[in-house]
Each structure stands twice: as C-alpha cells, then as structure tokens.
Design goal:
GO terms for molecular function: RNA binding. By secondary structure, the chain is an alpha+beta fold. It is about 55% helix and about 15% strand. The protein is built from ten helices and five strands. A five-stranded antiparallel beta sheet has the order 2-1-5-4-3, sandwiched between helices. It starts with a helix and ends in a 17-residue tail after the last helix.
Length: about 250
C-alpha cells in the first residue's frame, strides 16, 4: 500500500511541477494531459467535458493531434470517449486496426478517420465521483499495445486528478456566481445549441438532423466542429441544402 501511495504522490508532484505549455498558458488540465502522455508511453492525451445529451467540449489536450482526435468524436458523435461516458467504465482498445476488422460497426466513422490520422490504440477513462459524471480522459497511442498494470493504475490516478481539478473549477465558478463546470465548455455548448437552431430554421429540418449536418460539414471541410459552429453563429457560414450529408463515407 505504501508503494501505491508513493506512486500516486509522485505522479501528482509531476503534474504540479510541470512547466506551462509553449503558448504560456498555465492550465492544470493541460499539465495532466502532458504528464499522462509521457508516463503512459502515449503519443498524446485529451480531456473532454460532457453532458447527458452528448454535447461536449475539448477542455484540454497535450498537442494539436490529440485535440484533433478528440474533435473527431464531437464530429461523429461516437468513439471511445462517448462509450466510456455512457457506460461509466474504461474503454481499452489496444489495437484499433483489429477492432475495425472485427467490429467495423462499432465506430464506423470515428475509427477509420482516427486510424487515418495515425491512431493505433486508445484508452478512455470516465471522470466521475459518486453521482457526479463529468467527462472523459482519453489516452492515445500511435502504436498498438496494451497498457501495463502499472500504466492502468497510473491512468486512474490521472483521472482522479482531473476530477478534482474540474470540481475545483466548479467551486470557483459558483463562488463567482457562474454555475458551470468549465467556462469554455459552457460557451461552446451555448454556441452549438444556437448553431443547431439556426441550421434547423434555415434548412427546415429537425434539430437532430441539424446537428448531423453541422458535423458532416466540419468533417468534409476538415475543420474543427467548434470553428464551424462559431462561423454559423456569426453568420459567416450558411449550410447548403445540397452540402455534405450525414452518414456518408468518411
């Protein structure tokens, strides 16, 4: 037990001592992603805040490639992050290519797109404590292979640190009179709902189809979903009736 406690303390200290990213931002969640990627022999890591309706925002990522892999799940509404959140259990995919060959229908859009971006293994850990269900920590690898027992235990520690950081943000927000787990996530959800409504009215389609059309456009144009959403709300972009359709081959 002492060895386990020492390891947890070691990982927490690594996160606290981690220098700010190259952009100068000192974000605890970004530091969690950076240290998790290094200690878990991963190519990257990402954290997404989620809600019961599936709307989520990429809150932190260790690098642009990992942010892209997180964004792809927002585009398609499927992937390890979604499964880990809904099942409340870790999703451990040690060989994405093998999954595609054996279970091609599991993530028919996310898996081939992520594989094309170099993803070979992914491990998703739900961020939860009691009834609080906050989001998911994703760990990405550019090579196939399982987590070792030590790496799995370390990943759970990183998930616990992330939960604490998110709850601290919630407490700070409430003390400021703003009740949301993350300001960026709240703004993103508001923009996404607004964009959905605008596309629904413009194209005369149901709300669910409007979201699918926004995701399809983002993927077809190789853009981040958040950027497309922002352009729709700002009226810099108006989706065409004959534009990319959801359900097509990625």
């Amino acid at each position: 037990m002492q060895a386990v406690d020492d390891r947890v303390s070691y990982l927490r200290n690594l996160i606290l001592r981690r220098a700010p990213g190259p952009d100068g931002r000192d974000d605890l969640l970004r530091r969690v992603c950076d240290v998790a990627a290094r200690e878990l022999s991963a190519s990257g890591a990402g954290i997404s805040v989620m809600t019961e309706d599936g709307i989520r925002a990429v809150t932190a990522a260790s690098d642009p490639a990992s942010e892209r892999l997180e964004e792809l799940q927002s585009m398609f509404g499927e992937g390890p992050c979604v499964d880990a959140y809904t099942s409340r259990r870790p999703v451990l995919i040690s060989d994405l290519g093998d999954l595609m060959a054996k279970e091609g229908g599991r993530w028919p859009f996310y898996a081939p797109a992520a594989h094309a971006d170099g993803l070979r293994a992914v491990f998703a850990f739900p961020l939860q404590i009691g009834a609080a269900h906050l989001g998911v920590l994703d760990v990405f690898r550019d090579r196939a292979g399982r987590l070792t027992a030590t790496e799995f235990a370390d990943a759970l520690t990183f998930a616990d640190v992330t939960v604490t950081a998110l709850l601290d943000r919630q407490e700070q927000a409430e003390s400021s009179g703003i009740v949301d787990i993350d300001d960026d996530a709240a703004e993103y959800r508001a923009e996404l709902f607004q964009a959905q409504g605008m596309v629904m009215v413009q194209l005369g389609i149901p709300l669910g189809q409007a979201m699918a059309r926004i995701r399809a456009h983002a993927y077809a144009e190789n853009r981040r979903l958040s950027d497309v959403t922002r352009d729709i709300v700002a009226r810099r972009l108006r989706l065409d009736r004959d534009g990319p359709q959801p359900g097509g081959s990625p």
